[in-house]
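Put briefly, the fold is written as integer tokens. One such record reads:
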Amino acid sequence: MESLFKAWKTSRKIYLNFFDSYSLNQLNKIPSDFNNNLIWNIGHVIVAQQSLIYKCSSLPMYIPEDLLIQYRPGTKPSGPVSQSEAEQLKELLIDLVSKTEADFQKGIFAAVTYIERTVVTGFHLASIEDAFEFNNYHEGLHLGYMMSLKKFV
């Protein structure tokens, strides 16, 4: 798990760099032939992680319900993200890794039964370990998508 958390932290730092490299307008821009933007992808990986790790463990998530609704799978941007929401997402990118790692170290995931599921890409998640592995894969997919997207903003 140590290497998994290390990879996750590295990934999240790359996501965080988008806030320093692009203006809020650029983060919000949806280029033609795309259905989302850079900031939506950031919000989406935050929500997906909370859902995969906490919700499927029947544990309370660290995100507000409105973020879950706005960035869950199957959604797309409904309008531009405000500066305050961008700041919230920026903070959550790093804070949630620390909280999740601390919760893992405390053993809270060992005391729950993971709710098995098969995600839309066909991966079957049968355990919390599967969820952590898939989360890193999922975040890598979206990071790749963002690398393509950034060329058009």
Remarks:
- The first strand starts at residue 117 and ends at 118.
- The chain is about 60% helix and 5% strand.
- The mean pLDDT is 95.
- Helices lie at 2-21, 24-28, 38-54, 65-71, 83-106, 128-149.
